[in-house]
Amino acid sequence: MEEKRKRIILIGRSTAGKTTLCQRINHEDLAYHKTQTVQIVNQTMIDTPGEYLERRYFRGALMVTATDADIIVLVQDATENGTMFPPAYNTQFAKPTLGVVTKSDLATPKQVETAKKFLQMAGANKIFVTSSVSGEGVDELLKFLGYL
């Protein structure tokens, strides 16, 4: 019997790289488009609009949507100076939480380390540093998730 792939939910602010990461994982052409609504990708990924994290009144929608996921994936843009994730953000989901730093190809090593710290403070237990453009770190993430 084939094991069912774990379903992940990608949470992060607008332009963090959630949709681009989905495209990379699915070997699609990388093309930016603004995610307006929750998107289910290949029945294994839930891509959420950044506004769901950025606007407090949408955060309940993230909680409800996350019930359909097995793993919470917090996505942090390495080039961003701050974070939208409050400390211990993972505790509201009661599910395994991992972090993904995106845009590592555009960031300095110091920026990558800062992004990792933001994700650690938010409660990510394991962190992957990725670039959807170069592919850096994506295979490691997919192996961890059991997608490869």
Automatic annotation (TrEMBL):
One of its GO terms (molecular function) is ATP binding. InterPro entries: EutP_PduV, P-loop_NTPase. Coiled coil: none annotated. Keywords: Nucleotide-binding. It comes from the Bacteria. CDD domains: Ras_like_GTPase. GO terms for biological process: biogenic amine metabolic process. Belongs to the EutP/PduV family. This is Ethanolamine utilization protein similar to PduV. The lineage of its organism: Bacteria, Bacillati, Bacillota, Clostridia, Eubacteriales.
